Each structure stands twice: as C-alpha cells, then as structure tokens.
Amino acid sequence: MEDNLLFDVLSIDEDKVKHIMDTRSRLYPLQPRGLGTAMKEGLVSYITRLSEAHCTDVGSLVSFECSPNFENPRIYPYHSNKVTSTFYKDAFSINCFGTICTDMENALTKLTQRSDISEMNLKKWVFIPRNKAIVKKQKHWCIQCYSKWEKEGEALYDPLIWSIELIKICPVHKTLLQTSCPGCNMEIPIINNRSLPSHCIYCFKSLASVNEVRLVESEDELLFQVWLCDSIGNLLMYPKEFVDTSSICNALQSFRKNYCDNNDRVLSRLFLLENKRRQINAYCRGAANPHFNLLLWFCYVLGIELVSVCTGGEFTQIKRKPNELLQDSKKYFMLESKWSKIDKEIVRNKLTDFLSDDPPLSFNNIAKELNIQESYLRKSFPEEAKMLATKYTNHRTNKKNEKIQMEKNKMEIVIKDYYHANGSVPTTSMLKKLMGYTHITFKQELMNYYYEKIKEFVEKKT
Ligand SMILES: [Zn+2]
Ligand SMILES: [Zn+2]
Q1: Is 222 in contact with 169 (CB distance < 8 Å)?
Q2: According to the lineage, what is the superkingdom (predicted)?
C-alpha cells in the first residue's frame, strides 16, 4: 500500500518536479529596492546585495555564477575570486551601458528569472551617446539614508541616482554624499570582488556609522543640485521605453524655430556656446546627439524639462534665468572639457616620452597621468596609442612567460624531490600542496608541463 502510494506520488510528481526545476531560478530572486521611484536601486548595488543574500562575496558570485552566462566569459574558473581581475576595472559601467553591463543584465535576468533587472542601469537612455563617464567609479553614499534604513530594519542599498557623475547630493536629504570611508579615509571603488553594501572594503568599518553631515558650499550650487536631482530623477522614473532617439533634435529644432528665428547663431548665443555653433547645428539636424552634460545644460538654459525633451513630448519654456547667472552656473556642467584647451603637440611629445618608460604604463594609466580622457587620446593620436599599447602588451606577455617559467622550474624541483623521497610522482593535488598553492588550479600550460615531467619519470622507471 505504502509502496503504491509512494509510486503514485513519484509518478505524478515527475512532470511537476521537472516543471518546477525548469522554472525555478538558480539564484534567489532578491527584490530590487526603490523600483519605480527616483531612488531605484543601481545594478552594482543589487549585485552586492545578491552576493550577501547568498552568503558569498561579489568575486565568487561574479566569477562562478555570472561569468559563465556572459557572451564571452571574462573571469575564468581558474581565476580565484581573490585575484583582482581586470574585470573590476571596467565593472563600474554595470550601472550604465556597454558590454559588461549587457552581459551582467542578461546573466542576472537568467539566474534570478526576474524581469526587472534591466530597470537598474541606464541602457534605456538611448538618446545619449554611450559615454561611460556618465557614472561614477567610486562609491558615493548618504549616511542619513543608511542610518534611516538601518533603524527601520530595511536593507541598505545604493540608488542608481547616487552614481550619476554630476550628482553630489542625496535627492532626499539634500546633503552632500559621502565619498570616503569615515574609518580609513579611503575612497571606495563602486564595485570590487570584496564589495559590501554597507562596509568599507579596506577597514570593514560600517559606512552607516554616524559621520558629520556635510552641506553644499554655496546656495547657488545647492539649487543647481536640487534641479539636477529632480531632472534626472524624473528621467529615471519614466516608466516606458525611450523609443525615439530623434526627440532631442526635434525639441531643439522647435525651440530654434519658435524662440530664435530659426537662427543657429542666436541659439548658440542663447546657450552661451557661441564657438560651438556648428556642433549645435548638428544636434538640431540630428546628425549627432549632445552628450549628457550638454543636454542638461540645454534644458537648464531653456528652462524646460529634461524628461519632456527626451520623450519628444510637448514642452513650454518655464522661465529663463538671466545671462549673468547662467554664466556662473556653466561650471557646474563641466562644459569646458579639459582637452579642448590642450595643445596637441605637447600631448604628442608627452606620449612619445612615455614610450621610453620602463616598465611601460598601460594606456589607461597614461591617460590618467595626463588627466586626459582615454578615448580622446586614442582618437587623436592613433599611432602613438597603438605603439604604447603594443609595448605594454608585450611587456605583460613577457612578465607572464617569466612567471610561468619560474613556476615550471619550481615544479620540476618539487617533482624530483618527491620522486627521490617516495619513488613515485606526486598527484596534482599533492603537487599543489607542496608548491604552496591553496586554492588556485594549475593553468593549462603548467598542467601540460606536469604531464610531460611525470612521463619522463615513468619512462625512466621502466
Ligand atoms: Zn539621503
Ligand atoms: Zn575604511
């Protein structure tokens, strides 16, 4: 009787179990926080909380769960989660767009089976050029929000809006966001293999611990920041897809027509960008899209809503600020990019100087040293960039080969010693132990070398 019952249960459940197994998610489908509001969670924050929910670290979650689901796995299984991978150098872009962001979005959608993962980055903003400088590389947080959530027993998280480069204040508390750890004073990367939602990755001090609340220095800047939070917040809340990439040029065109006699010169003067007349004409024609800061500047000057410009909706000019005030606030938009004043010849000479550096720097670090955007350097000095990159790659390859050779030498000695003491060759796990490896698996090249060596010993024996 009982057997029958068991059989029944099993036979009924077989399909059901299969169905359940097929439809359940591999990872716990943690609920993102703040969705639908201007304070919705950023994808980087979600990853950090997701790893915490699984009692693991970000490194393991990313390497062993997410990466196998990337189009091209970036972190290979033999990279220990403790190894700082180059992945984390660009991982800040998980909050905006780009390949890493798309890979991560797809992987997490699959692993959690949630349909709202794509809400947590900026990929929806199809109307802006894909410049990743739109988001921060360092963590910024509001201690008042953190302590409030902690008191209320809510999970601590980082809203996407805190990671927008221009945003300096918390949209809720209107106080400056924190930029460095209260314990060790270090700036914290926005994502790292050890990232924690609420603690410093260097000294592990709680970031919610009360610290002095700092205010924006000038009233003007505060007003600007509040305007910025509202504008960007509304854009983040926009519930539908942005389908029309031409809405910005339509908005500019109609503004030029209605308020500037259809004259580019008048429009560029209005924007206090007289020297950018040709560029502005290109934006009106739709030949190019203005970068995000410039778009914000247009809205600020024209006194129109960012969200209505981006969605092609109707807009009316609210009120224009007097020109002398505008001139002052221009700096907040960082419109004068650093490189526009840079003498190309000087930069070229500096780049050539870097060629004689030994050991060579990576191109990314060179850009940092020069304080010039890497993409600008690559575009303006393609030959120098190529030479510097090749030099660095060769250097890296040599270093790698040297390291592998050292490991091979070490391996050979260990095998020999073991053979003399035991009359047999060590197993790979024994070899790992003897070589002082704890968690790393041998790279393929070393594995091959191992097989080669033990073959020699076995042949010697027979
Ligand atoms: Zn706050
Ligand atoms: Zn710290």
Answers
A1: yes
A2: Bacteria
